[in-house]
């Protein structure tokens, strides 16, 4: 991780990373919290997994709290943030792709819980767009779940 003396460098913006809700991905578990925050703020193109409680139901939130306390799991929705956009999958009865984008941590269907920094992306923005365009027709919205 490189340090920069310029105020506009990503490394000078550690305060912009949500410290309270940012966790480390599995490959980064051996790093200290301070190191994770620095890596996240210094990443040229950070990849962040955002975790939501499914829906906006208080019962689901309570279930997830119990699941976390007992390590039993919970009911969650996840999305990946890359290049300033959040991408995820959502089901629908319409015959359209289920892959959609929204403002990071602002999915109005679910309740934001926490973020997990996964690392720095090794793909260009164009490569990410090409990949998403390939995935969209493979991940259609009509599903069998209610």
Short précis:
The chain has 146 residues and is an alpha+beta fold.
Describe this structure in words.
The chain is α+β, with helices and mostly antiparallel strands. It is 23% helix and 25% strand.
The proportion of strand residues reads 25-35%
Main sheet overview: 6 strands, mixed
Instruction: Assign an overall shape.
Output: flat
- Strand order across the largest sheet: 1-6-2-3-4-5
In total, the number of strands is 6
Mean pLDDT rating: 83
Q: From the helix content, strand content and strand pairing, which structural class follows?
A: alpha+beta
Order of helices and strands: EHEHEEEEH
Distance between the termini: 45 Å
Helical amount: 10-25%
C-alpha Rg (nearest Å) = 17 Å
Stretches where pLDDT falls below 50 for ≥5 residues? 1-10, 12-16
How many helices? Answer: 3
Question: What is this structure's SSE topology?
Answer:
Elements: E1 22-24, H1 33-42, E2 46-53, H2 58-70, E3 76-82, E4 85-89, E5 99-102, E6 111-120, H3 125-135
Parallel strand pairs: 1-6
Antiparallel strand pairs: 2-3, 2-6, 3-4, 4-5
Structure characteristics:
146 residues; alpha+beta; six-stranded mixed β-sheet; 3 helices; 23% helix; disordered N terminus
């Amino acid at each position: 991780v490189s340090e920069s003396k310029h105020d506009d460098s990503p490394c000078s913006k550690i305060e912009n990373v949500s410290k309270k809700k940012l966790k480390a991905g599995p490959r980064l578990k051996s790093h200290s919290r301070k190191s994770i925050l620095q890596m996240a703020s210094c990443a040229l193109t950070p990849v962040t997994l955002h975790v939501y409680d499914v829906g906006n139901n208080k019962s689901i939130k309570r279930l997830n709290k119990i699941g976390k306390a007992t390590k039993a799991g919970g009911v969650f929705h996840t999305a990946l943030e890359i290049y300033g956009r959040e991408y995820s999958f959502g089901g629908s009865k319409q015959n359209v792709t289920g892959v959609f984008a929204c403002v990071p941590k602002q999915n109005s269907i679910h309740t934001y819980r926490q973020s997990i920094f996964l690392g720095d992306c090794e793909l260009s923005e164009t490569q990410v767009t090409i990949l998403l365009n390939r995935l969209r027709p493979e991940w259609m919205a009509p599903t069998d779940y209610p």
